[in-house]
What we know:
Layout: E1 8-12, H1 15-28, E2 34-39, H2 56-62, H3 67-73, E3 77-79, E4 81-85, E5 93-97, H4 110-119, H5 131-138, E6 152-154, H6 157-170, E7 174-177, E8 180-185, E9 192-197, E10 202-204, E11 207-210, H7 217-222, E12 227-229, E13 238-241, E14 254-259, E15 262-268, E16 273-279, H8 286-295, E17 306-309, E18 313-315, E19 319-320, E20 323-325, E21 331-332, H9 340-353, H10 362-388, H11 396-403, H12 408-420, H13 433-442, H14 459-479, H15 483-493
Parallel strand pairs: 1-2, 1-11, 2-7, 4-14, 11-20
Antiparallel strand pairs: 3-6, 4-5, 8-9, 9-10, 12-18, 13-16, 13-17, 14-15, 15-16, 18-21, 19-20
Amino acid sequence: MAEQGITRVVIAGGGTAGWMTAAALSHLVARPLTIVLVESDDIGTVGVGEATIPTLLTINRLLKIPEPEFIRETSGTFKLGIQFENWTRPGDRYIHSFGDTGKGCWAGGFQHFWLRGQSEGIAGDYGDYCLELKAAEAGKFGLSKDTNVNYAYHLDATRYGQYLRKRAEAAGVQRIEGKIAHVKLNAESGNIEQLEMASGQFVEGDLFIDCTGFRALLSEGALETGFDDWSHWLPCNRAWAMPSELDGAPLPYTRAIAHSGGWQWRIPLQHRAGNGLVYSTDSYSDDEALSVLQQNVSEGAVADPRLIRFTTGQRKQYWHRNCIAIGLSSGFIEPMESTSIHFIQNAIMWLLLMFPEQGIDDALVKEYNQRLRSEAEHIRDFIVLHYRLNARHGEPFWDYLRTMPIPDSLAQRMALFENSGRVFKPQDDVFSENSWVQVMLGQGLKPKGYHNIADAMSSQQLRGYLGNISTTIAKKLQKMPDHHTFVRRYIAENS
């Protein structure tokens, strides 16, 4: 039997990142581990990552979390996509849905058939051929054996962390309450040896997980890992977060509403709405930004607004020596496409795939960092895309974002789509071909041409093909219940 070099895992920090990591390691690593999580009740969590993408279903299923229980415990609702409002110009809107639009073929995605249909005047809007998008517009949601729907969740991140804590502690994770006073490094290896708590207690480990948020107490404070700053592409550096009462039934989508110096999120839970404004201090002062948010939230606040300061970018290494940064300690990309919790999950999933057997393997560490960095850069490009394709002329914030130099990788994707309608998805890009197509079309980038495979049909065949898709969607949509009705029934029937 191989020697088990990593037996003691110490997680610094709680919240969603800490407790998701603790729950995953305690349930999914198939050998004995001693897992200790240290956190202080005096240190709050950011706790605003309330909108998710469909990848969250994967880890919930691996952890065997019953979905109705999860929805109940987190005050969750279902999410079919994100509605972007005012992003091209004031008054415009489109939905980036999680579903597949239409049906493509081996040579090209559905957008090529749709583009030909548009050129002949026989195709409707691109979104007309997506069940999830039409259901979002109608405020509907349902799960059945006859209807396969791609979805994610809106959830209370604080409640989610508490829910995961119960599961982790039930699996043997030990929680130590208190603040970290000092991180002790080994003089020879430079690895972390132990955490010294303010109480005087010492916590030793073989592998340390840094979930200390923006402070990055271990990975940056102790190991000085370094940070790649992306502010020149994503200049927003502040957010106000303010939960409010919920006026009306929760909709099955997130809203992202552009303003002159930033954008506002709107996330409907069962018991309240999550609201916030992401902005640049070059565009708004903190007071001005708070005023914009308060003026655009009609319901009463249920807690005081909280100011969040951040710098967009990523650690130069997610895994450095014997420390792995997970969550906000590893970096941050503004939550426009709801990727904050996905970043946590992605880091955990790769850790599970590469969990060290006989000590830390440099080749594994290198692979881990390459995977995490590559995916973060794809997500960065996807976020920059929304800003780049704006037509809000005369507003300095948006004028800069529309004209700034962009990453070469994004410029290539945009040029490829504009010239030919083609999108090629790298393996480590969490966003599908259809996601890129929806956002580029939604933001006004329409291709000049399409793949010749779309010309294999006659006009009559193409008309029938498109009509069958929209007819099938209409029939499925008719059977779907109202979203709020479904949530209440789903919980009640499975309690």
